[in-house]
Amino acid sequence: MIAEAGFERHAQSLPRPVSPTEERNPRTRDIDVVSTAEMVRMITDEDAAVIAAVRAAHPRIVEAIDIAVDGIRAGGRVHYVGSGTSGRMGLLDAAELLPTFGVGEEMFVPHLAGGLNAFKKAAEGAEDDIAAGGALVADVGPADIVFGIAASGGTPYVGGALDMARARGARTVLLASNPFASLASKADIPILVNTGPEAITGSTRMKAGTAQKLVLNTFSTAVMVRLGKTYSNLMVEVLATNAKLRLRLVRLLTQATDLEDGVCENALAATDGDLRAALVMLVAGVDRSAATRALAITPGRIGGPSVREALATLGIDPA
């Protein structure tokens, strides 16, 4: 709260209510004297309320997804910005997109206050650096989205990034667990998930962190689906970097086509492991060259056609 108060003085804003995440939880006051079983019940009961809080924020999450899809299609990127647990959640979400959807920093860029070293070792003082937050997104443009993540909704580092983003014409999103977030006015889309007081007062790695994980998972996954990174609910751009994932490619093909493993393995071999091309080959009954042409990237388009679009060009409706 000291950092937040300093930021408010800097911004010369009016005093705001204390974030619910910093309030004392009346339901867990005896957590240090109850049995282990009762302690676990207390914590998980608090966690159970997070789903409803995230569901209440659905309209704003939808808005954020839509602007991100439009921005990426226009050549922009999503910049996650946060400190502490919030920044680590952004970093984790962005890192998992590469093996899952074949997407890296060309679309999603995470920024953690204090740098990558702060992922393992806390650098809490870094969250007060407004200028550093602004500097890291100083090159964004109108197609970019700066997505601030701050449980309290008042982290100076995030505020600096949002200010710079708006000055550069980028779109802005804020994810916070405080309905009175002081940074909400800096965001085009404030996603304010009211998770209430934590089981342990102020420990935002708990309910607030869980809410962040849920929102970010939903946001980035939906963006990937809208960009054609799945076929039905199957991942089609998995990076097969180990034996487990290579087996997953075969399983994905069998799930999508109902064909035998051997047929799917042969299709993968024929396409040098290109799952999308193998899938189009099997579903459309065409050779590799026809599948590759159908999946060819159209000039000016980010990411190329989806598998469904490629199949449509071949006259196939895999409804």
Give the topology, please.
Blueprint: H1 2-11, H2 36-48, H3 50-56, H4 58-73, E1 78-82, H5 84-101, E2 108-112, H6 130-135, E3 145-149, H7 156-167, E4 171-176, E5 189-192, H8 207-226, E6 230-231, E7 234-235, H9 243-257, H10 261-270, H11 275-284, H12 288-294, H13 307-313
Parallel strand pairs: 1-2, 1-3, 3-4, 4-5
Antiparallel strand pairs: 6-7
Helix pairs in contact: 3-8, 4-8, 5-8, 9-10, 9-11, 10-11, 11-12
Structure write-up:
The chain is 47% helix and 9% strand. It has 319 residues and is of the alpha/beta class.
What's the overall average pLDDT, rounded? 89
| Main beta sheet | 5 strands, parallel
- Helicity range of the residues? 40-55%
Q: How big a fraction of the residues is strand?
A: 5-15%
Radius of gyration (Å): 22 Å
Distance between the termini: 53 Å
- Please identify the structural class as seen in this structure: alpha/beta
Provide the low-confidence segments as ranges. Answer: 1-14
Strand order of the largest sheet: 2-1-3-4-5
Dominant shape: globular
